[in-house]
Amino acid sequence: MSWNIDPHPRRTGALTSRAASVGSQRRRAELRGRWRGNVLPPMAPGAPHRQQVVEEIMWEVVDRLFETWGEQLEGINFVVRTVPSDASLERAVSRGETTPLGVATVRQERTNPRKSTRNVVLFRRPLETAALDEHHLAHIVADVVIELVSEFLNIPPEDIDPIYGTGPNH
């Protein structure tokens, strides 16, 4: 039995049975041993929002860092925002830098100028744009959180967490 619909399947996009089986074998081989993603499609009710996905990844990294650096990390707020502020983007452009993936900020409280708040802010959209897939996103988020925490602690990122820099593009 032949499944050939068109004698020139590449021109029209039609598949032969052999092409379909080779494609499915290749897909199975590419997914072997990897997490296959969410069960629900992204737009289905109940599927996690992209903001939630980035926040969950960030909190996994922060929890791991708290196991080692808990006391030094107390008082640091960890936040995920959608995009950097216009001021951050303008600063990056004026310095010839790319869009920031996150920032470490220190803000003095208005009521008590002696007291300051330290914030690690991640920017979801630039992180998602930089990532190839969700697995890669997890590595990028981990590296950015580790880099920003290392700024506050004045410790090299490699000393903060041994997984720093071990992602797919390093």
Describe the structure.
Residues 14-24 have a biased composition (Polar residues). Residues 1-28 are annotated as: Disordered. InterPro entries: Zincin_1, Zincin_1_sf. This is Metallopeptidase family protein. The protein contains 7 helices and 3 strands; from the N terminus they run αααβαββααα. It is of the alpha+beta class. The protein folds into 2 domains: 1-33; 50-160, 2-Layer Sandwich (Zincin-like). It has a 3-stranded mixed beta sheet with strand order 1-3-2. Helix 3 packs parallel to helix 6. The longest helix has 24 residues, at 50-73.
The structure class reads: alpha+beta
Give unreliable regions as ranges: 1-29
Percentage of β-strand residues: 5-15%
Number of strands: 3
- What is the share of helical residues? 40-55%
For the biggest sheet, the summary is:
3 strands, mixed
How would you write the strand order of the largest sheet? 1-3-2
Please indicate the count of domains.
2
Which CATH class of the largest domain is shown?
Alpha Beta
Order of helices and strands: HHHEHEEHHH
Give me the Rg, rounded. Answer: 22 Å
* CATH topology call of the largest domain: Zincin-like
Gap from first CA to last CA: 49 Å
Number of helices: 7
User: In one word, what is the shape?
Assistant: globular
Architecture of the largest domain, CATH level 2? Answer: 2-Layer Sandwich
Overall mean pLDDT: 79
Region (Disordered): 1-28
InterPro entries: Zincin_1, Zincin_1_sf
Organism: Pseudoglutamicibacter cumminsii
Biased composition (Polar residues): 14-24
